[in-house]
């Protein structure tokens, strides 16, 4: 993706304004202890539970995390902690119980049923050669939903591990009836890259390019988190007093990115801006106790950000 150069002042003000709702004290979290029945319409038989489907609720909304696969990157100082001495990175990983030779990232999507809408947040990596992925279609069906039943797809950003599952090997859309929502700056950047020509052709008729920070559909508001790509968005999903914040690539690794938000990540288009965005989002999430859904944290990637010893830690929901 192309780099861009917004000022930190604009970044901080915009992020604070859009995330102001997250400052409310201790809202009811998304619960995981009472899974709903499989998501199925009258013409779709409920599927049996699957290890790749983690069901939960956001208020009264049925939701599920869908496993797509995994990404493994070397801990070589060139990816998630660029230029940081390896012993420092190793110490963070070891304390988190992680290996120090390879950094493991999950790839997962979020499914939410809201009234007549079936919402899907990101679409995984598809058959990308950099990931052991491509399980999303099977996970979706295991949750009782056919691709044609998805009405709305929310793209955090257009990196291939988030849009790879939009099309099949022939370049045809896999979600024929879904509107594809992404921010206008992100869509503009996607169209400007010749490598994206096939993707653009497949999804253009169904794209909704929204203004950053917009309420995209009732109950789903985009949260600009700048620096990763030109129009990267998190999404806040609200039902009554219950909220869930889907963070996209605001943070990649549950230990490295959370405990050391100022360490440079090679995937960020504008690293200084992304680092400021990451720290601001983690602070807001910690102070509001909002439930987080992360597509790259260990499956199912549901939990909270907690302040500890001058930094942050990831507290997964049990």
From TrEMBL:
Annotated region described as Disordered, given as residue ranges: 28-50
Pfam families: Lactamase_B
Compositional bias ranges of the Low complexity kind: 40-50
Domain Metallo-beta-lactamase: 106-296
Signal sequence coordinates: 1-23
Biased composition (Pro residues): 28-39
Keywords: Hydrolase, Metal-binding, Signal, Zinc
Listed SMART domains: Lactamase_B
Family in the record: Belongs to the metallo-beta-lactamase superfamily.
Name used for this protein in its record: Glyoxylase-like metal-dependent hydrolase (Beta-lactamase superfamily II)
Organism of derivation: Luteimonas terrae
Taxonomic lineage: Bacteria, Pseudomonadati, Pseudomonadota, Gammaproteobacteria, Lysobacterales
